[in-house]
Design a protein that fits this description.
four-stranded parallel β-sheet; 10 helices
Length: 329
């Protein structure tokens, strides 16, 4: 009698929430606690279906445009950032704003402004239509050209080849970005790189973990939403690393049992906007089908945290001081 091969799960670490997502989600929850509902949020606070639905149940209202927010209301800007024109629209409508833009995205915005002030042509590597790209481009639209992958490089034109710099969307695949950068450098040998890597530390760490498990996994399951750029990239990275098959799911019940045919090793990870409860659901689903042995594949330790948006911190301090009978500092 032939022994049944042992079934196992390779669980990526780190996975799930990054510091920017954690900060943004907590910001919505704190705002709801402090001001009550509704709190309007321009676009999804983070790209995750479960998180958005959970916050909606607590009283958050997600809108596509600032014009949908009633005058005098509170509106929060998502972790992906917004263009200066959006801040101006909010001011015109007399909206109180809370900016939950991830500090790493803010860094890219500041780089765009600085290089534009120095009259550089800025080549922004990213995906057309992504909220982060729209926000960054809005900082200096007359200076920024979007480059959507290496195949787009042939179309790029600049005013002065000695004053060209590249920046990137923070949630891209590291390999994809560097492939585009290499193509740009062949065309523009004097291309300047940003002072620090634009790709988010969490995006890189999650991709490294998937690369380490990819060749050993018959199937990789990535928990994340289809509009989450970093989650979609993890599927691509898994396949590129040698995984036989890889799929993106929001919830465990989206997994097709047919994917497990002939599979003994499943790799499991989650995008940077995914709460751990969804990963636990997939682990339970797999355990019920014999995949009870879980091995951790560790790529890095993450200890980065970001403080809450300053607007919320200021009001929280004032509230705390009022409750204690003291004065805010």
């Amino acid at each position: 009698m032939t022994a049944t091969p042992a079934r196992r799960v390779l669980l990526a670490a780190p996975r799930g929430y990054c510091a920017g997502v954690d900060r943004a989600v907590i910001a919505v929850e704190k705002a709801l606690e402090q001001y009550g509902s509704p709190i309007y949020v321009r676009h999804e606070i983070v790209h995750n279906k479960y998180v958005v639905q959970t916050l909606e149940k607590k009283g958050a209202i997600f809108v596509d445009e600032t014009a949908e927010v009633p005058e005098g209301s509170i509106v929060m800007f998502s972790a992906h950032g917004v263009a200066p024109t959006v801040h101006a629209e909010a001011a015109e409508r007399k909206l109180a704003t809370i900016d939950a833009t991830c500090p790493l995205v803010t860094k890219v915005h500041k780089e765009a402004v600085r290089f534009a002030n120095e009259d550089y042509d800025i080549l922004l590597i990213g995906h057309e239509g992504h909220e982060e790209v729209i926000g960054t481009s809005g900082e200096a639209p007359e200076h920024i050209t979007l480059v959507d992958g290496p195949e787009d490089v042939a179309n790029v034109e600049v005013r002065d080849e000695s004053k060209v710099v590249w920046l990137s969307q923070t949630t891209l695949s590291v390999d994809e970005t560097m492939e585009t950068v290499d193509a740009l450098k062949q065309k523009f040998p004097l291309l300047v790189s940003p002072p620090s890597d634009d790709i988010c530390y969490a995006t890189q760490n999650r991709q490294i973990a998937v690369k380490r498990m990819g060749a050993d996994a018959d199937l990789v399951i990535v928990v994340g939403s289809k509009n989450s750029s970093n989650s979609v990239r993890l599927v691509e990275v898994a396949l590129g690393a040698g995984a036989r098959d890889a799929h993106l799911v929001d919830f465990a019940d989206e997994i097709d049992e047919a994917w497990l045919e002939g599979v003994t090793t499943v790799g499991l990870t989650s995008g940077a906007s995914v709460p751990e409860v969804l990963v636990e659901g997939v682990l339970e689903w797999l355990a019920q089908r014999g995949f009870e042995d879980v091995e951790i594949v560790k790529a890095a330790e993450e200890s980065i945290t970001f403080s809450l948006p300053k607007e919320l911190r200021r009001d929280l301090r004032a509230e705390a001081a009022q409750l204690s009978g003291g004065s805010a500092k």
